[in-house]
Specification:
The chain crosses the membrane at residues 41-60, 81-105, 111-133, 221-251, 271-295, 353-372, 392-412, 424-444, 548-575, 587-610, 639-662. InterPro entries: Kazal_dom, Kazal_dom_sf, MFS_dom, MFS_trans_sf, OATP. It catalyses: 3,3',5'-triiodo-L-thyronine(out) = 3,3',5'-triiodo-L-thyronine(in); L-thyroxine sulfate(out) = L-thyroxine sulfate(in); L-thyroxine(out) = L-thyroxine(in). Residues 46-666 form the Major facilitator superfamily (MFS) profile domain. This protein is mainly alpha-helical and 710 residues long. The protein has three domains: 40-139 and 185-294, Up-down Bundle (Growth Hormone, Chain: A), CATH 1.20.1250; 340-447 and 544-664, MFS general substrate transporter like domains (Growth Hormone, Chain: A), CATH 1.20.1250; 448-540, no CATH class. Helices cover 58% and strands 4% of the residues. The strands form two sheets. A five-stranded antiparallel β-sheet has the order 2-1-5-4-3, with no helix packed on it. A two-stranded antiparallel ribbon has the order 6-7. Helix 4 (79-103) packs antiparallel against helix 20 (583-599).
């Protein structure tokens, strides 16, 4: 065998013309095969890692939405301030988006994404930290409901026989309480944590998508990015379900004896274990970032893309080897780009379709972001549902409807080969019917619960305009009550009283949740019956409320689906209404405008509007207004739905203007499209223009604040 092998080697060495050809051919095929395997394997690992990151960021973002009311109660802050906290994510994102988008492509993109995950997890952990430094959560409860060994009269007729703990605290006690109450300002750490989340999330989308686009096989790029976006839709489902689970658990679980807790999840003072979900989300973010530290800066390019005219994002920058030769050319190119900036901006803002569509999108996103941010609060206050059930319903019903709507919109576009004009019609129709369905929700609300001194007087009529005076009546005039307390009890007459003292109760028995108050002079005063007992906790909403909640869910799901159908056509319309060389610039302006003019302000002014419907504010131990305890159900419904519909209606008018301009430009006499014959004028020049090209298909599955349609 060895002799034969040597003979063959000698033979091939003598035939020099054959040797190079055969060996190089074999080497070429082998290297191509290895390179293909390496490319496919590397990009799929990156795809899996990026999908997990998208899941992690979507989960933490949706979990924040699910804990809005919990944060508000825990830190005793109004809805407007919660809106500022929610908008801080967008502020963090905007702080470094330009730096990341520009310099990120020059650097090690996977590691930048990994660093972003670490920053995102640090922000998530920071949000949960105040729980461990604020001390235990304290809610308003009459002492006899906490300690059964002391029998106190809620109606304090003789202050001398009552322990100091049941009376208004002395200045010394107030000052001592204020030292601990300083922890209430720790909501700032929640804001800073959310700001960090926004900073950490910034590189994931631009760098991750461009990395896939650079190294994936061209025909697979759209499929890969579609997979990533699909996983991103699954994230909010788990986020809201996690919110539902944590809302069931008491905020200080593991730190206090749960048997001593006298409030239930249906109480407006209930705070769930909001911090627990942030710890879980933070751990998931850390795990999601680990693979990116081991991924290469470059992947082997697929054979089909090596000769492609489209260069990768990374290859557009000068490499170290060519730095000296290309320095002058680089500066010239940059100067040329800067010189083109103002004309490009003028060209972009001179496009009426782009400007009108941008205005319509900004106003519509204002409507949707505000609506989704406060949807859990609306369901809780309007229909008397617990935070746990509210989050469960949103996560399990609304979000799948949104996902199905997005998929349906893309399917309709492909199946019917819809062009620019058709996309505009589909987007407009989706918005019109979606907001029309939303209009029906005005009739699906619950009336205010009967709360003595707030929604009804002690005599069964409408209360006085002055809330402070309306809380007092002849029946409780002999009692030494505080108007600032919120410790609701339910009388046998079906009326809720702000506190046992204001109900005129003079005796109590039992402890904790089973406390019963007797000889309540205000209970039954405006009915023939003389019932005078009451139990801990507010009375339930009317009998019709559960039925109304069911109707609300059905309409809400249909509305979510209808509005989501128009998402993809609207985004495709944006891509096709601009000249190809301005596409990236136009998308950047669009994203920036949505974040600055919708993502940041919408939660704030929606929160301010919702605060105006509050009937009873809580009081902080050191004085000052706390979180709202009771909302006017009718006013809340009109403000929340009314503001959403007004903004939606204005956006529809802009969408109609877009359609009118497109119709005018696509008429037979205006077939020229634009002065230079470019497709950017939004016309329908050819059959080819009626379809989404590969680059548009890659982009079509994402638009700013897509999660707000959930």
């Amino acid at each position: 065998m060895e002799t034969s092998s040597k003979e063959h080697t000698h033979f091939f060495s003598n035939n020099s013309t054959v040797l190079p050809v055969d060996r190089s051919s074999f080497k070429s095929e082998s290297s191509a095969s290895k390179e293909k395997q390496s490319c496919c394997g590397g990009i799929k690992i990156f795809l899996g890692a990026l999908s997990f990151v998208y899941f992690a960021k979507a989960l933490s973002g949706s979990y924040l939405k699910s804990t809005i009311t919990q944060i508000e109660r825990r830190f005793d802050i109004p809805s407007s301030l919660v809106g500022v906290i929610d908008g801080s994510f967008e502020i963090g994102n905007l702080l470094i988006i330009i730096l990341v988008s520009y310099f990120g492509a020059k650097l090690h993109r996977p590691r930048i994404i990994g660093a972003g995950c670490l920053i995102m997890s640090a922000g998530t952990f920071l949000i949960a930290m105040p729980q461990f430094f604020m001390g235990r959560y304290r809610y308003e409860r009459f002492p006899s409901t906490i300690n059964s060994t002391v029998s106190l009269s809620p109606c304090l007729q003789d202050k001398s026989q009552t322990p100091l703990s049941a009376l208004e605290k002395s200045p010394a006690k107030i000052n001592a309480g204020c030292e601990k109450e300083a922890g209430s300002s720790m909501w700032i750490y929640v804001l800073l944590g959310n700001l960090l989340r926004g900073i950490g999330e910034t590189p994931i989308q631009p760098l991750g998508i461009t990395y896939i686009d650079d190294y994936a096989v061209e025909e697979n790029a759209a499929l890969y990015i579609g997979c990533v976006q699909t996983v991103a839709i699954i994230g909010p489902i788990f986020g809201f379900l996690l919110g539902s689970l944590c809302a069931k658990l008491y905020v200080d679980i593991g730190f206090v004896d749960l048997d001593s807790v006298t409030i239930s999840p249906k109480d407006v003072q209930w705070v769930g274990a909001w911090w627990l979900g942030y710890l879980i989300a933070g751990v998931i973010s850390v795990l999601a970032g680990i693979p990116f530290w081991f991924l290469p800066k470059h992947l082997p390019k697929a054979e089909s893309r090596k000769d492609s005219s489209t260069s990768s994002e990374h290859s557009k920058f000068i490499t170290e080897e060519d730095k000296d030769q290309g320095t002058s050319y680089w500066h010239q190119a940059k100067l040329a780009e800067m010189a083109k900036f103002l004309p490009s901006l003028k060209n972009l803002f001179g496009n009426p379709v782009y400007i009108l569509h941008l205005c319509a999108s900004i106003i519509q996103f204002n409507s949707l972001i505000g609506m989704v941010t406060y949807k859990p609060k609306y369901i809780e206050q309007q229909y008397g549902q617990t935070s746990s059930k509210t989050n469960f319903v949103i996560g399990l019903i609304n979000i799948p409807a949104v996902a199905f709507g997005i998929f349906s919109g893309g399917l309709i576009m492909k199946k019917f080969r819809i062009g620019v004009l058709g996309a505009a019609k589909l987007s407009l129709g989706s918005s019109f019917f979606g907001f029309l369905l939303l209009l029906s929700l005005f009739a699906m609300g619950c009336e205010n619960s009967d709360v003595a001194g707030l929604t009804v007087s002690y005599h069964g009529t409408k209360p006085m305009a002055d809330e402070e005076q309306a809380l007092f009546s002849e029946c409780n005039s002999d009692c030494s009550c505080s108007r600032n307390d919120w410790d609701p009890i339910c009388g046998e007459d079906g009326v809720t009283y702000v506190s046992a003292c204001l109900a005129g109760c003079r005796a109590s028995s039992g402890s904790g949740k089973s406390t019963v108050f007797f000889n309540c002079s205000c209970v039954g005063t405006f009915e023939s019956s003389q019932n005078s007992s009451a139990v801990v906790g507010p009375c339930q909403k009317g009998n019709e409320c559960p039925k109304m909640f069911l109707y609300f869910l059905v309409i809400s799901v249909i509305t979510s689906y209808t509005l989501s159908v128009g998402g993809t056509p609207g985004y495709i319309l944006l891509l096709r209404c601009i000249k190809p060389h301005l596409k990236s610039f136009a998308l950047g302006i669009y994203t920036l405008a949505i974040r600055v003019l919708a993502g940041i302000p919408a939660p704030v002014y929606f929160g301010v509007a919702i605060d105006t419907t509050c009937l009873k504010w809580g009081s902080k131990r050191c004085g000052g207004r706390g979180a709202c305890r009771l909302y006017d159900s009718s006013a809340l419904r009109y403000v929340y739905l009314g503001l959403t519909l007004v903004l939606g209606t204005v956006s529809i008018f802009f969408s109609v203007a877009v359609l009118w301009v497109l119709r005018k430009r696509s008429s037979p006499r205006d077939e020229t499209l634009s002065s230079n014959g470019d497709r950017g004028a939004c016309g329908t020049k050819s059959r080819k223009d009626n379809f989404v090209n590969s680059d548009q298909l890659i982009q079509s599955t994402y638009w700013p604040e897509k999660e707000t349609r959930l």
